[in-house]
Specification:
Number of helices: 6
Distance between the termini: 30 Å
Shape: globular
Structural class: alpha+beta
CATH topology of the largest domain: Zincin-like
Bound molecules: zinc ion
Helix content: 25-40%
Number of strands: 8
CATH architecture of the largest domain: 2-Layer Sandwich
Number of domains: 2
CATH class of the largest domain: Alpha Beta
Strand order of the largest sheet: 1-3-2
Order of helices and strands: HHEEEHHHEEEHEE
Amino acid sequence: MNRAALPHPDPEALAALGPADLSRALDERVEAAWGLCREVHPHLPIPRVWLDLRGQCAGQAHFGRGGLRFNPVLYAENRLDFLVEVVPHEMAHWLVHHLEDGRRARPHGREWQTVMRRLFGLPPRTTHRFDTGRASPAPHRYVCGCREHGFTPRRHALASQGRRYRCRKCAQTLVYRGDSAFENAR
Ligand SMILES: [Zn+2]
Ligand SMILES: [Zn+2]
């Protein structure tokens, strides 16, 4: 079953869509991905869909709210990659969560990776390379001993030139972490 299991979207048609059609294309993609998951889990509930995520996160499976959240800015700017990869990524979380014992699985653990590879025919990546400059004023991810910090492009440039920043709370030097994750660490 190692193949791109969802049809490839037409990039030109996608590029021409206005906001309402873009939102509908996302709903349709979620529904198609959900249909595929039902081959594995016939009673999988259909997730609700929100375009309400901000910052550098691309998507998030929100089990409390019962659906999938997506980042409208990153979606509008990266339409094709978003439909091809982010929707299956979050749908794979949704599926694993609803499997027996799925709640005990690690977020990007073996079960999630298997769904990505075998069902969606995609490499199980956990970081994206979208330009988050417009979605987040502080898109560069730095870590200390206690949490993650977002750096603005200006701060990031200074850090790249050798300036050191310390966390006010744990006093550790902040270290650049690179690519943005699909969702915040849980
Ligand atoms: Zn800290
Ligand atoms: Zn994820």
